[in-house]
Specification:
The chain is built from one helix and seven strands; from the N terminus they run αβββββββ. The protein is an alpha+beta fold.
Length: 131
C-alpha cells in the first residue's frame, strides 16, 4: 500500500514539474517575439569596442532600449507612420530607457540608435489599441 502511495505522489510531482517547464518554455518564446532586431551599420550589434545595443517592444505602449559598455549621449530616433520622434539618453557604461509609443499611430516604424559614429537600426510594428 505504501509503495502505491509513494508511486502516485511521485507521478503527480512529475506531472506538475513537467507542466511548469512547459510554461517557462512558452514564456521564453514570447520574449523572443518582442525583441527588436537591430543591426549596426557595417556590422553586428556587438562592435569591436564591446558596445552592445538591444531593444524590445510590447507593440502597443513601450519600446525599451538598453546600451551596455558605452559612455556618452545616445540619440534614439523613431521614424514612420507619418511621424517621427527623437529622444536623448545619457549613458554611463550602462543605460536603459523606456519610450512611450502609446500615442503613435499603428504602423511599421524604423528605430535608429546613434552612439557617436555608430548607428544601430531596426524596425518594429506598433499595433492599434482600442477601436
Amino acid at each position: 500500500m505504501k509503495t502505491k502511495l509513494y508511486f502516485t505522489i511521485a507521478l503527480i510531482c512529475s506531472a506538475l514539474l513537467s507542466s511548469s517547464f512547459a510554461i517557462a518554455e512558452t514564456n521564453k518564446v514570447n520574449d523572443q517575439q518582442d525583441k527588436i532586431i537591430l543591426s549596426k551599420s557595417g556590422g553586428t550589434t556587438r562592435g569591436v569596442t564591446g558596445v552592445e545595443v538591444t531593444g524590445t517592444t510590447d507593440g502597443k505602449t513601450n519600446v525599451t532600449i538598453s546600451v551596455m559598455d558605452y559612455t556618452g549621449t545616445a540619440i534614439v530616433q523613431i521614424i514612420g507612420g507619418r511621424t517621427s520622434a527623437q529622444y536623448y539618453m545619457e549613458v554611463n557604461e550602462m543605460g536603459y530607457e523606456v519610450i512611450n509609443i502609446g500615442t503613435l499611430r499603428a504602423a511599421t516604424y524604423t528605430i535608429r540608435i546613434i552612439l557617436d559614429n555608430e548607428v544601430y537600426e531596426g524596425s518594429f510594428v506598433k499595433e492599434s489599441v482600442g477601436r
